[in-house]
Predict the structure.
Amino acid sequence: MQRRNFLKSAGATAVSLPILLNGLRLSAMSQSALFNMIDPESDKVLVLIQMNGGNDGLNMIIPRDQYSGLAAVRSNILIPENELLKVDDLTGFHPAMKALKVLYDDARVGVVQSVGYPNQNRSHFRSIDIWTSGSPAEKFWNTGWLGRHFDAEYPGFPEGYPNGQYPHPFAITMGSIVSETCQGTIANYSMALEDPFNLFPLFESEGDVRPDTPYGNELDFLRTSIVQTNAYSEKITEAANLGSNQAEYAEGNRLARQLKNVALLISGGLQTKIYVVNIGGFDTHAAQVVEGNPMVGEHATLLEMVSNAIATFQNDLKAQGLEHRVVGMTFSEFGRKIRSNESLGTDHGTAAPLILFGSCIRPGMLGENPEIHRDVHPSEGVPMQYDFRDVYGSLLVDWFELEESAVRSLLHENFQKLPIIEDCRMTTAAQTPLLDDFKIEAWPNPFDGWAQIGFTLERPAWVRLSLFNAIGGEVQVLTNQNLGAGAHRIPLEGSRLPVGTYFYRLQIGNQVRTKRLVKVG
Amino acid sequence: MDRRTMLTALTGRRAATPAPAAPPDNDTTLAPYAGPWGFEQAAHLLRRTMFAPRLAQIKTAVAQGLDATLAQLFQELPMPDPPVNYLSNNDPFVPLGDTWVDAPYSRTINLRNPRHRSLRAWTMGLLLAEGVSIRERMTLFWHNHFATNNVNDPKYLYRHISLLRANAWGNFRELVKAITIDPTMLRFLNGNENTRVAPNENYARELLELFTIGKGEQVGPGDYSTFTEQDVAEMARVLTGWRDRGFNAYEEVPIEAFFVPNRHDTGAKQLSHRFDNEVISNMGNQEYAHLVDVIFRQPEVARHICRKLYRWFVYYKIDETVEANVIEPMAQLLIASNFEMRPVLEALLRSEHFFDVLSMGPVIKNPLDFVVSAVKTFDFDFPDNYRLQYEAWWRIFLQTPAMQMEYFNPPEVAGWKAYYQEPVFYRTWINAATLPKRMSFTDTLIINGLQAGNERLRLDALKFIKTIDDPYDPNAVVESFARILLPRPLTDNQLAQLKEVLIPGLPDYEWGVEYTDYEANPGNMQLAVAVDAKLRNVIRVLLSIPEFYLS
């Protein structure tokens, strides 16, 4: 029968109408023996774990050298000191993260301290937008940080995709919403996927003439979307059937369930570059811990899930020889306030640590512990040390091999590459530090109107010094320029600033220090 | 033959000429439509102003004409009865069947969840039960415009949505005033924390950027051509002092906003040249209303809301032609009518632009429209018992969040992306996860039925076919079904394919024989099942093709 069928089934296999109409799903799609793979060895994958709600970083990576301060301001939720999983003299993991600690000791976990952005927005929605778009806090960008990257690489998408060269989805979001990180100018690059074994062909229809009207345009778009979904679904089903898991994922762990599918698809040869997985529940305003037993509670349960899921995933990849292809990162829209509240919880705060994992990341801690004073203001969050866009950009440069100049235009002009990837591609030559900690000082501190911040550079460098208020607002940029070697003193004219706690953040190249400064009346 | 006539023919039954490269502009104006008034026009008007009209409603509209139909769409209606407790046997304040909208909360029992659920079920019930009225469409328009979410008190939400419903086509300026001190909005955008000592700019910024004048191009530091950062800061000061009470209250207290003089900034507030350097001071609890009046002096306010109306009712693409021919005259009319919404809505909905062939069909239905149109068109039998009814409404309500639209939960203060996100607009509804959700929902309605309590809502195909004029001719059957369900006529080829689904490989008269047989013997299950299965197949195809996703 030559006639083009108005009611055409998906995929290569012709499906007769009665089967579709009897409500049967086509469980097995065409499975080609020669799965179309380009060069799996060259393909790098980034897995993003979005922790929705605002993770209490101070209860995840605990600054042991600040324990007395913590005990003064969040005693009702604080983990006993001797229960912490010590990673060194300064820090410890939450005791629920034993599996992650094992991975850390195996040099497969890196922690970037106090990641955030200037002028922290404490609204969930807005801050998620900022984290997913990679925009400054004041700007509204409609595209995601990865979507912009894809836009530059694959012009015209989705028109003409998938095709012979790119038969697979560029990105996958586990769940039913596509991740805003992958929003491009025209379309989102990520495909929403709930269950790789439960994809069924959508009904494809074919109008023989598309009227040349706005109606026809939208109809075309819908038809293309349906065809594209079917084409990608077919590849995903193939990969799911070819792939395997070599580790036991805990059934009840909702993050592990998603990562299990990610490992399966990578193992099955899917060429997808980005996977986004989600775990919600971090908005722990109340009952973050069980009264009288801070070892357990909502947050401990979540951290244990995250820890176990990452560790199982990493073990799975390792067992399958896929470790070197995958890097993972967690993120959350904000950290929480330093002081706990009366409801055994914590409220929306500022910066928080994020976790990187994989065999190609630079293991260990990057950055310093936040300072926790016993007199922190109730609204205070952990001040930012690292700009989240520098973390993103460093992944793009050292993992996806983008030029730094490209990253500057995708993310921000002041991009500073951070040492978070190593082994696989060494780009960070060992350098002597630019900055000598002992010589950074604000004087007088406390101050009442005027102060100065002094530091010494070992050699010339770009320096950005700014002042933040207690809720993460960047209230003054004191300098942002190249400075020569030697001692510098930057004046701070603060007579009009309200009385209270401030932080000065000194960024010299990719080194950052954030220190506290108090204004008195 | 000019281009428009050709296109009209092209999109009709006989489409054969190869299509030109890009769709032409719709260069028609706001002038009253003077063309033919038939099924196509009436259905277009009702589909865009209601949530899915039924065949009988379209026929009535055809018979009574455009003017009478418009008058009916804007007919004043009493407010609906409030939502009732249908779930909670242990609500100490509200027996089953009574409304909870003024009842307190309990310290020991979670009453918020069942009330949230009742509110949502009730809302779906209103959409399913609406008559020929634009009220629900406009209520949702305002909900998208003054988007709020995350205010976790269903009594607040009921009060808030009732304000929008009561002002569905009322006065825009007065509605902005009411919204400015609406308890839900005060909470959502932190107006209740906005004080003399610690001004909070959140609401002031959105009032300008989203609710009234819109954000123009940035033409200088902090100057967005329609307003400046100075205006945001000064207007925040104007709005200081308002608080709300009654939030999640355990006592029987009315939900209300109130003014606290000592939280209000009594100093002079200096607006920028964008607002003619207006200075506002010493007006106490009337300052907010005066501020709204000041903002509304700028003609850009009218343009901004008219663009949003256009994207809600017509299409997302606004080019220079549409801006000049439609938006600007709408804006002038809105200003001339002192910001009453009805005249401008009526003008748009009776315009030649609205009824132009190029305006027909390009709106991708939002999930609510999609779900409601799949249910309502077929006149499902809902249970009589109110508890079962609410439960059925609730089950239908639950379909839309997975398709990425949830009443009372717009994702952003800017509303749903489909109505503002350049350049994709309506297309944001469609992705690899939402498409299967839509298709499996319609399949469920047709094949197994949607589980609701102990019952299943399953499409009654035999009831549906009885509504059409000629159920005996298979050509007429598929054409009638397509006309009711789809925004534009199908091609001859598509209709022929559909008929193949109805009577595969059989001559036309066989359908008439089968159907007549069934009609003569309505008790004969075998005949009924055979006819029913065939009809179900056709309807399933019609709800699965992308044409059904359009309006």
Summary: The longest helix of chain A spans residues 214-242. The longest strand of chain A covers residues 474-483. The CA atoms of residues 174 and 193 of chain A lie 5 Å apart. Chain A touches chain B through 49 residues (CB under 8 Å).
